[in-house]
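Protein modeling request. Please complete all fields; requests missing the sequence field cannot be processed.
Requester role: graduate student
Desired output: 3D structure, token encoding
Chains: 1
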Amino acid sequence: MDARIEQVVTSGQVNLDDTDHDVENNTYIIGDDDEVIVIDPAHDAEAILKEVGDREVMAVLLTDGNEHHLNVVLEVAAAGEEDEENWAPIALHRGDRLLWRDYFGRLAKEEDDEDDAKALRSLEPDIWLEDGGVFEIADAQLEIVHTPGHTPGSVCVISEQLGVLFSGDTLHRGRPGSIGGVYEDLRKQLNSIGALLTPLPKDLKVLPAQGEETNVGEEDSRWESWGALAQDED
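Delivered output (234 residues):
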């Protein structure tokens, strides 16, 4: 198999409900020597594009629409190309359209140039991700699974060929994914995690958007115990 996975770790801040959280994020680059797909670019476009090198970015997949997955997405999609028609398509689930519009709407308010502000306000993802949708890169397929809860449009990405589940911020090692321990809809998130993990091979590697890797078996064995977190949220 020619397809491989590369990881870039970056750090920065995310503002949720007027509170800043320090976060360290994993960006994954999947592809071969010629073409790649980038999953969840965050904070540092230069570091990510350095790892991409002279390979063509075929798409940028976002597992959710929170700020840290949007703050460098345009730079990574552009990959040094000035002509927007040559930019890689950006893909997001429609459930996070409001998060997208809120973020770029805030940027538009900071723009002095009205044309640039108008462009930011009208900006939309190029592809709306759907449950069961598939992307192909090199000799690997990336299947989209809708996992609402962390955000309405959260998704995970499964590659049978690569033996991996990219779990975004839906699932982190040892716990449901969160930013600063804050959960938007933990019950829905836990239901999504349970439905996601149950049919998958126990030895399937899990690569989250934050923290260290794990596997399906380890997290599936912990899943039931997380119900106490949901009770605390209530």
